[in-house]
Amino acid sequence: MTTVKSSTSNSSHKKPVKSSTSAAAVAAKTTARIKKPVAKVAAPKRIAQRPRAREITGITPEQRLRDIAVAAYYIAERRGFAPGDPLEDWVQGEAEIDCLLAAKHMGQMNS
């Protein structure tokens, strides 16, 4: 049995109210709502991953960056270390190294 305060002016007087459903019935309904089956979502399809750079070229990314830095140095040396754009030297060195690695990779594939 639940008690509810009366809406009369005497607020200290409580009036008993009968509940039509028991606490156990309310708990059972709440639990039933929580345990509803959840629709299963299909797992996403796996996308074929590209091979890693090391698998293709045979060198680590750190080695590739080191090779690019050396190539950029030699590019600057060829122009006599005259003022120029270091970024352009790097980009040109990167293109040269990537071309060499691609040629090496193609040579391995054809063997």
What radius of gyration results from the CA coordinates?
38 Å
For the secondary structure, the number of strands is: 2
Element string (H = helix, E = strand): EEHHHH
Number of helices: 4
Which features characterize this protein?
111 residues, mainly alpha, two-stranded antiparallel sheet, 4 helices, 7% strand
Verbal overview:
The protein has 111 residues and is mainly alpha-helical. It has a domain at 53-110. Helices cover 54% and strands 7% of the residues. It contains four helices and two strands; from the N terminus they run ββαααα. The protein has helices at 23-34, 53-57, 61-78, 86-110; strands spanning 2-5, 14-17. It has a two-stranded antiparallel ribbon with strand order 1-2. A hairpin with an 8-residue loop joins β1 (2-5) and β2 (14-17). The protein is elongated, with a radius of gyration of 38 Å. The relative contact order is 0.08.
